[in-house]
Amino acid sequence: MGRTYLVEEGVGQYLTELSTKVKPYVTGLLIGQCSPQRDYVIRAVRTPPKEQQQEESLGPPKLASLDEEWITTHASQVSRMLPGGLLVLGVFMIATPELAKDGQNALRKLIFSVEKSLSKRRLWKPAEEEVSDRAALQICSATKKVVCRTYDMQDPKSSAKPADWKYQSALTASWVALGCTVNVNIHIPLLATSPNHDLEKNTKNGLNRWSKQIEDSVFLINGQVKDEDTELLEGQKKFRGNTPPSTQFSDVKVLTQLCQGASPRSTATVQVCSGSINLRGAVKCRAYIHSNKPKVKEAIQALKRDIINTLSDRCEILFEDLILNEGPQKKSFGREYHVLPQRLFVPVAGSSVMLSDYKFGDEAAGEIQERFVEMLDQPVQAEDMHIAEDISTVDICPVTDSPSDTQQAQLTKATLLLKLQQNMGLVVAAAVAVLASIFSFNYFSD
């Protein structure tokens, strides 16, 4: 028995409109949510056309001209605009009858490429019980016949399995929204052995450590700690009669554990550093979960991933902007102060779900509107764009001078004192304060 895809009716209308414009084919992404019982598709987004495709269309139609890199890049850009709980569920292709024979092979190749590209960017690992099937939807532009198949992303040699494709109205009308604000204050050391001050790599390593803290955090849903295996909506009233459903919002508090590891004992590592990166601010996070008896662990997992993704995506966007403005071969740096892009939310037409994007301070509303049209094929009104948060910053601090012999001796003495204090079971905070004024270092807990 294959998987079932419940699809918002608006998606069907969108695909029908696209099929009237096919010359000779069009590809795109399916956006939605996985669940153990079924999957939900809330949007379909066509691949943005490239200028050179107009010239290629003059030749004979062929799927061999599919630009795989262009499609996977689009998928990466779109994934940044999805709140927690939503992901790229698969790919679609609308093609003329003469291309139908090769369509499924092209879709299979595409879906694995897209998933590989997206998984490289993630700072979290999928759970063992998580759904790993992704959809490949093929539509004939002449007959409008729809064929949906799935492939297991954990098995590169997996064969196609049939899937049901069913349209449903008001699919997300009663979905649950969860929101939280997470205060961020991350100190990332730049090791002296790091070549060319690789800021992006060091930042990603630091975010990897921080993401583990988020994974181990305690989540209070509407002020309560709930068992992960209970139903999220347990005890809440259900809508009856003619009462229209609406999105239910849950406020979440994130409690980050200060001490990690099962053992109360810890060790300190002093490392020679060339500087540090400091990420500071408060980020707004949001996740959506289906209303078909969702479990608490599904909701928390969706919100955790949004917390991790939103900070990681902002750093990626910032470094991409720096590369464009300063070039990729920057080998030395002074103290730098950057502002991370702010998150904004935009409603989806015909849905209770909101999508997001990131805005630099000097970006005009028109640029954001153009990006939504290009990436999501969705017009957006300026008054519908809601900036959710204040400014968050990145402070890059180099160590300007090399340590003198006296400082090095002080550092060695302080290191020995630190180890002695640990063996005696004393706190290391005092030693950390002394060292911070002498040299940059990093403190890890086993």
TrEMBL record:
GO CC annotations on file: endomembrane system; membrane
Cell compartment(s), UniProt: Membrane
Annotated transmembrane regions: 424-444
Function, as annotated: May play a role in the trafficking of a subset of G-protein coupled receptors.
Keywords carried by this UniProt record: Membrane, Transmembrane, Transmembrane helix
PANTHER family: PROTEIN ODR-4 HOMOLOG
Organism: Peucedramus taeniatus (Olive warbler)
A Pfam family annotated for this UniProt entry: ODR4-like
Name by which UniProt lists this protein: Protein odr-4 homolog
Highest taxon in the source lineage: Eukaryota
GO biological process per UniProt: intracellular protein localization
Gene name of the encoded protein: Odr4
Family recorded in the similarity comment: Belongs to the ODR-4 family.
Main location: membrane
